[in-house]
Design a protein that fits this description.
Blueprint lengths: L1 H13 L6 H35 L6 E4 H11 L1 H7 L3 E4 L5 E4 L1 H17 L7 E7 L4 E7 L6 H4 L11 H7 L5 H11 L3 E7 L3 E8 L3
Helix pairs in contact: 1-2, 2-8, 3-5, 5-8
């Protein structure tokens, strides 16, 4: 049903010249809210799929290079980064490997990058890195954005929890992106943590088991 609504609204918008400005404004609102609802449904389906496959132990993990995953995520977010004038720097040695599901892990990093870009000031910077320690493989996404107050940190990975509801609605956020990151990390036998300070930015880190 949502796809049908989107199609009809887009058709009407393509014929905008035949409508009054009043009607066109309403169509723009319908289109925006339909797109937001579509994004929520897509994220809910993705989250349900991850949970179901995790419960059934159907997620296939194979040894793979982390750098390739990070490069794919950066490419996926390149247009949004360019629009805000925010460079994304990458620091990941070639030898960083882990047992991963490549597409799933890339989606987790995309969500973290998208979140960093959304809450960063134009022409600031986002850094993404990966390293291997004795205990973990660690993927880190760091921004210099608005940061998060301490009272919100424990709830950031809950479904539909948003710190700034107005900003989230304006940007089309669903409130599910970080919850998806959490479940993907757990599906890899790992976890995701956040450190943040208002006005100085946030650092999200995915910890994966070493090979």
């Amino acid at each position: 049903p949502i796809t049908s609504i989107k199609g009809y609204v887009e058709t009407l918008l393509d014929e905008a010249g035949e409508h009054s400005q009043h009607v066109q404004d309403f169509l723009e609102i319908i289109s925006k809210q339909t797109n937001r609802l579509y994004a929520i449904v897509e994220d809910l389906l993705a989250l349900a799929k991850i949970e179901q496959e995790s419960d059934r132990e159907e997620i296939v993990l194979e040894k793979g290079p982390i750098k390739k995953v990070l490069q794919g995520a950066i490419e996926a977010c390149s247009v949004k980064a360019a629009d805000k004038g925010i460079p994304i720097s990458l620091n990941c040695p070639e030898g960083v490997n882990a047992r991963i599901n490549g597409p799933m892990l890339e989606q987790a990093v995309i969500n973290l990058l998208d979140n960093a870009l959304q809450y960063s000031r134009p022409e600031s910077a986002v850094q993404i890195s990966a390293e291997t320690t004795a205990e973990n493989v660690i993927i880190t996404v760091k921004d210099r954005g608005i940061g998060v107050a301490p009272e919100h940190l424990d709830r950031l990975f809950e479904r539909f929890y948003v710190v700034d509801k107005g900003r989230s609605r304006a940007s089309g956020g669903t409130g599910l992106g970080l919850a998806i990151v959490k479940h993907i990390a757990q599906a890899h036998g790992g976890k995701v943590v956040v450190q943040s300070e208002p006005g100085k930015g946030s650092t999200f880190s995915i910890f994966l088991p070493p090979i």
